[in-house]
Amino acid sequence: MSARVRAPELRGRGWLNTGGRELTLADLRGKIVIADFWTFCCINCLHVLDELRPLEEKYADVLVVIGVHSPKFEHEKDPVALADAVERYGVHHPVLDDPELDMWQQYAARAWPTLAVIDPEGYVVATMAGEGHAEGLARLIDDLVATHEAKGTLHRGDGPYVPPAEPQTTLRFPGKLVVGPDGTLLVSDSARHRVVELAADGETLLRAIGTGSRGRVDGTADTATFSEPQGLCLLPPHVAEVAGYDLVVADTVNHLLRGVRLGSGEVVTVAGTGRQWRSTVDDHAHDALSVDLSSPWDLAWYDDKVVIAMAGIHQLWWFDPIKRTAGMYAGTTVEALRDGPLAETWLAQPSGLAVSADGRRLWVADSESSAIRYVEDDVMGTAVGQGLFDFGHVDGPAAQALLQHPLGVCALPDGSVLIADTYNGAVRRYDPATDEVSTVATDLAEPSDLALTPDGAVLVVESAGHRITRLAPGALSAVGASTVDGPRHRTERKPTDLAAGEVTLDVIFTPAPGQKLDETYGPSTRVMVSASPPELLVEGAGTSTDLSRRLVLSDSVTEGVLQVTAQAATCDADVEHAACHLTRQDWGIPVRVATGSATRLPLVLRGLDAG
Question: Which pLDDT score, from 0 to 100, does residue 487 have?
Fold first, then answer.
């Protein structure tokens, strides 16, 4: 029997959602605690927030969720930005600010998100990486409740969450924007769970589509509901006439596409089941209402179809509103930066789309790799960006330029593209003719999208400013642009020291209580391994079904990143109608190759690793 592991004390820069109170583990004794290590840029972390909500409601008198915010990007270290994110994403539990990743290291987290379950006596009883753990967590909580109620160590009652004051603004964390056919502005008012129409001044509210409460109900403008909608796409008139609606909305947290008839404001579901995609990659067309989606974040009309930035699974998808079909367009679901044929490319949380004036090129804001990518002639390329862990605010030649988590793009008539460089608070411009990047506006509040008006003005969605603003006249001219040689950053996580030569990779996975590995449709596990630079990994790259694998690391490459993707399929055990579950996680592990270092790399997908 392995020794019980005492949970490290919770310490950080400060707390949110506690009414100013600093919490300790002693304050939480008697409760089941889930420490959720997250960062607000990470789509998988946002999925886990959604998975935890029903558990928080069901087990409100025995469960306390503590969000431990351990940032990836420099901007995420800003306490004001963190407070904004906590409100934006409806985080209704205490959050500990962990800007230097101290708690992350204390709890041996290796991936965003990581969950650590602490029992009522203060011991860590389970650790799990990635998303898809809700059912297993519910079973574990039930077991812990029964055990500790019998022991007398479970204390029921209210938790320490204190809600903040409700703000009053016309918009709340708007996400995306399109200019309507009559010059009005259609905006996804994301934190208010609705789509609004503003006058051309960007301020006057003309109407709201949706009640403003989180939900997934079709109906009239006054009764329909959304959940954190983002991308908007106006259909060409001839397509809209056949489809029966004018506007497609990426209903992000509902994992749906919704259609809106602008004349009446009526909302209909046009794609998605409402379930999050957890399947295998295929290139087939599917009935749009029978296929699962995963956090669609932006939309664009390209190649005679709606292209979807499917942020949740690091892919682009397509949707045909006339045939009412949908399918995968680009990407393998591996989260990284790799160009090439669309079926083989790697993306990292694509979040913004725009089409060039001639219709040939689709621009993509690939947020987690801080990159601007493009699709042309069935191939994906990268214009700006260097990978998952390199970011900053640097202009000049595109090969050296750096962005920080861009969420939006806007194609200009001259062939260049504007970039909503979100975490730098800037609008940047990439010009393919010169292959240069410049800065055209700064000091913006998390710009998340851009749009061009018929008269040539540029509108900016300042998401954290809760407003739509216009770029100053002349900002796009050569005189108006500037060249910034700002900071260069790299995500600083303590590297894992590994020995050159043979290393054993062990992915640790224990099925949740009441579940077993499911091989009904083939092997229940899959592990994919690659490296950056590729030369780091002499042997062991590729895909296999074994959770343990022999790697060989080069003795001539001193550092790099091992990229590991693991998934495990489980089903309920010993029940008549067993439900199926898929657990998946991507790790990007900074590695330092050093003599005499470890020869085993353990990664916990689910379980409690004693090694």
Answer: 67
Angle at CA of residue 102, ends 98 and 103, nearest 5°? 75
**Rounded Cα distance, 527 and 541, in Å:** 10
Tokens describing residue 38: 């997250």
Taking the mean position of all CA atoms in its chain, how far away is CA 403?
17
H-run or E-run covering 178:
strand 174-179
Q: What are phi and psi of 193, to 5 degrees?
A: 60, 50
Q: Which helix (H) or strand (E) holds 394?
A: strand 390-394
Contact assessment for residue 586 and residue 528, using Cβ atoms and an 8 Å cutoff:
no
What does DSSP say about strands 580-593 and 496-498: parallel, antiparallel, or unpaired? Answer: parallel
User: What are the mean pLDDT values of the chain's consecutive 10-residue runs (611 residues total)?
Assistant: 80 96 96 97 94 96 97 94 95 96 92 94 93 90 96 95 88 97 95 97 96 97 98 98 98 98 97 91 93 97 97 97 98 91 96 97 97 97 92 94 97 96 97 95 97 93 97 68 65 80 92 82 86 91 92 92 87 75 82 91 74 34
Pairing of strands 580-593, 559-572: antiparallel
DSSP symbol at 4? P
Distances (CA, A) of 168 to 96, 171, 172, 195, 204: 26, 9, 8, 17, 15
Residue whose structure tokens are 């602490």: 118
Q: Please report, for residues 140, 310, 313, 346, the alpha-carbon distance to residue 127 in angstroms, rounded to integers and kept in the order given.
A: 12, 28, 23, 28
pLDDT of residue 477: 67
Rounded-to-integer distance, Cα 126 and Cα 280, Å: 27
CB-count burial class (<10 Å; 0-12, 13-18, 19+) for 212: middle
Alpha helix segments (H runs only) across 237-278: 237-243
Q: What was the pLDDT predicted at 63?
A: 98
In the numeric block, which tokens belong to residue 462?
């300042």
